[in-house]
């Protein structure tokens, strides 16, 4: 087994490992290459791959959470192809990722696990403890969506592709993100960072990502990530504080899902923190069903 740094020609294999290891993930080789090449220096991103017999069977990202005001936070997220678990690949990736983060000054490392038994035991043996939990939900887009209430006269639904100036979208995203439950709150996201890592992210589908405007002001939005292979993932859905309680986020998400269904997407996934009651209620209304529980684990380096 060999653990080494990612090379652009590894992108197809890394995307395949992620799809196989995490059944709801939305990714493409283009997105893998873009993420590795465009990471800002302050993120200290290191992408690793593990080879067995010359074949990429595992990968891991290790990076500093640079868009939070809390210093010393790092993320190590390994994935191993299901056909190659139990052979030390995950152990080697975790060790290399933690060494990188420690060298960058991280004092706490976070990771997500998706199997409550096998994956958590693996993390626990390596010194991790449980943090927050989240729920991954699935919606079959081959089934009809529930009927929606038509927008009020002052409400307009507009795709991101129709915006010449994306700054109002950034402002809505930045404000909504402040109230999202998380161990690592995103409260220091600059406009330039948002442009580089949301607006220009290859997985963000600008035709299916919808904003709800009230009298021309962006009030709510629903980000859509797609892979061109039938999978749709809600990247973030939220409202600005002054417009909450009007159903605008639900309206934006309904329009996004409606367009995704019309475009031929069959499987919609979304993830919510277990404490995010309002969003869980919205997704129940859409008909999302439980898919799996993810657990965020943390370790003091």
Account of the protein in words:
This protein has 301 residues and is α+β, with helices and mostly antiparallel strands. It folds into 2 domains: 2-106, Aminopeptidase (3-Layer(aba) Sandwich); 139-294, Aminopeptidase, CATH 3.40.630. The chain has 8 helices and 12 strands. The protein has a 12-stranded mixed sheet, with helices on both faces. It is globular.
According to CATH, the homologous superfamily of the largest domain is Gcn5-related N-acetyltransferase (GNAT)
- Helix proportion range: 25-40%
Within the largest sheet, what's the order of strands? 1-2-3-4-5-12-6-11-10-9-8-7
- Regarding quaternary structure, what we see is single chain
Number of helices: 8
Which CATH top level class of the largest domain fits? Alpha Beta
Number of beta-strand segments: 12
Number of domains: 2
Q: What does the radius of gyration come to? A: 19 Å
What is the helix/strand order? EHHEEEHEHEEHHEEEHEHE
Major sheet characteristics: 12 strands, mixed
Structural class: alpha+beta
